[in-house]
From TrEMBL:
Full protein name: Methyltransferase domain-containing protein
Gene Ontology biological process terms, A to Z: rRNA (guanine-N7)-methylation
InterPro entries, per database record: Bud23-like (IPR039769), Methyltranfer_dom (IPR025714), SAM-dependent_MTases_sf (IPR029063)
PANTHER family: 18S RRNA (GUANINE-N(7))-METHYLTRANSFERASE-RELATED, METHYLTRANSFERASE-RELATED
GO terms for MF: rRNA (guanine) methyltransferase activity
Organism ancestry: unclassified sequences, metagenomes, ecological metagenomes
GO cellular component, one term: nucleolus
Organism: marine sediment metagenome
Methyltransferase domain location: 64-174
Short name of any one Pfam family annotated for the protein: Methyltransf_31
Cited SUPFAM superfamilies: S-adenosyl-L-methionine-dependent methyltransferases (SSF53335)
Length: 194
């Protein structure tokens, strides 16, 4: 589904006081957590495959990446659902909010935070069970004008995300493409590279 409203400006809407505003927004927290809960349903959807026979671990030791974790709203839901979480974000201001939560709450002991670009992850191949990204994946081509370069970056990223997944792991991405062309471009990157 293509988003009709204005997308946030990246990175301007997530820096300095805007990071505080984002983290303090009850609406944003509620929206991010609800989206995460909906997305988690795809990890256990029997129509996709039988989880018992899938060969993928679904226990408290399951490691999941939260790409574009921001201030940690999605990470909270993942932890509450028994996952060990690696939260990754490119913006230090947003990660600092997640670090504050980790320091202040014992529930965050299963959360590791890494400052990194989604396109260039410091994660070993075949090391994570699942990957989740809520409302951040559309920013991976930020600042790129050349269509060919965008397509290459999107394909390279999709290929690497597939590479770091364990066998039968899943990638769940919720994002807001600006139009149908962009949606098809992102979809095709995963179809062709994973």
């Amino acid at each position: 589904m293509v988003r009709k409203n204005r997308l946030p400006k990246f990175p301007e809407d997530y820096l300095n006081d805007k990071a505080e505003e984002y983290d303090s927004s009850k609406w944003m927290e509620r929206n991010q957590k609800r989206s995460t809960l909906y997305s988690l349903q795809y990890l256990i959807d029997e129509k996709l495959n039988d989880r018992e026979d899938s060969g993928i671990e679904m226990s408290a030791s399951s490691l999941i990446l939260d790409l574009g974790c921001g201030s940690g709203f999605s990470s909270v839901i993942l932890i509450e659902n028994g996952f060990r979480v690696i939260g990754i974000d490119i913006l230090e201001d947003m990660l600092s909010k997640a670090r504050e939560k980790k320091r202040n709450f014992d529930d965050y002991k299963d959360l590791e935070l890494i400052l990194a670009d989604i396109n260039y992850l410091p994660i070993k191949p075949n090391s994570v069970y699942h990957i989740l990204s809520i409302s951040s994946y559309n920013f991976i081509t930020y600042g790129m004008e050349n269509f060919g370069e965008k397509v290459k970056l999107i394909n390279d990223t999709a290929k690497y995300l597939h590479k770091i997944l364990k066998n039968k792991g899943r990638i769940i991405i919720e994002f807001y493409p600006k139009d149908d062309k962009e949606l098809k471009m992102f979809n095709k990157s995963f179809i062709n590279n994973g």
